[in-house]
Write a structure and sequence with these properties.
Helices cover about 70% and strands about 10% of the residues. The protein is built from ten helices and five strands; from the N terminus they run βαβαβαβαβαααααα. Strands 2-1-3-4-5 form a five-stranded parallel β-sheet, sandwiched between helices.
Length: about 300
């Protein structure tokens, strides 16, 4: 958040002089000449620092301004100025939230140093709060983000860790424009999981093409009958079992990836594959001449 300073004084020359001084120091500022104007401006815009005279026509009005600041913008820091404050008045000012009191007449350097010091303190506190907020957000979202990656998309623990770290790096780059951090992180992790699976599928397909090319060459060299027998055996399976066998045995997918592609529960993939392989072995044995068949395991 860009810092802004509001200067409040019933003497116009002081307001003009101080806003000019701040502009020369590349600090954006605005001026108000009474309590009501300052209150209206604070309702429209956040000011990091208010530099205000204690006596705005009266001391009572200056004290009321401090109370207005606490009510309208409690995160705003206040520097008070005075030319004739008593110890009792200074205590009243500090009790109403002012950070310190600058005594008039003050040198420009003194005023500027007080404002820049307060802005630096605000920036440091904001950075510390941001780090704390991110740490809390990580702690509160870690479980749900891992659940998305592991349970919904069936990534391995290592893959889930990589995806979530990538999501956090993107968040830290863009958090200034992210409105709902938790929703944004969940959506980003889901997108990254899909991209990870798509990349894995493309990689598997390249290996499958290479494997299919080698298989075709073997068939042409003399294994054509074996290839026909396998295709006939596969035809005896139901469509789901045939699809599972193709994905695992031919295309090389892991059980988790097969579950995502087929929509079948992860726990059913292994048993279905084992049953399908047993049926294939039986079908292949039955396709051989009787004297070449081997006893089938129970």
């Amino acid at each position: 958040m860009k810092p802004y300073v509001l200067v409040v004084d019933d003497e116009r020359s002081i307001v003009v002089g101080l806003t000019t001084l701040l502009a020369m120091a590349d600090i954006e500022s605005a001026g108000a000449f009474d309590r009501l104007s300052a209150e209206a401006m604070m309702k429209r815009k956040f000011y990091s620092v208010v530099l205000a005279d204690i006596r705005l026509n009266t001391e009572a009005e200056g004290l009321e301004l401090l109370e207005d600041i606490q009510r309208i913008s409690p995160q705003t820091r206040v520097l008070s100025m005075t030319g004739y404050a008593t110890p009792a008045l200074e205590c009243a000012v500090l009790a109403r939230g002012s950070s310190s009191v600058i005594r008039k007449p003050a040198r420009n350097g003194e005023i500027l140093a007080a404002i820049t010091g307060l802005l630096a303190e605000i920036e440091k506190q904001a950075a510390e709060q941001a780090r704390l907020d991110v740490a809390q957000l990580q702690a509160h979202t870690r479980k749900i983000l891992f659940s998305i990656a592991r349970r919904r998309y069936h990534l391995t623990s290592e893959e889930a860790e990589d995806v979530i770290q990538e999501a956090w790096l993107l968040f830290l780059e863009r958090r200034g424009i992210v409105r709902c951090a938790r929703g944004w992180l969940a959506g980003t992790v889901a997108n990254l999981c899909r991209h990870h699976i798509d990349r894995s599928i493309r990689c598997r397909r390249r290996f499958a093409v290479a494997d299919a090319t080698g298989t075709m060459a073997q068939e042409q060299a003399g294994g054509l009958e074996a290839g026909i027998a396998v295709r006939e055996a596969m035809a005896t399976l139901d469509s789901e079992s045939r699809n599972v066998c193709t994905l695992i045995a031919i295309e090389g997918y892991a059980y988790e990836e097969v579950s995502v592609r087929t929509g079948l529960p992860l726990g059913s993939i292994g048993p279905m594959y084992m049953r399908a392989k047993k049926k294939l072995r039986i079908a292949l044995e039955m396709s051989l001449p009787r004297d070449q068949r081997r006893p089938l395991a129970a």
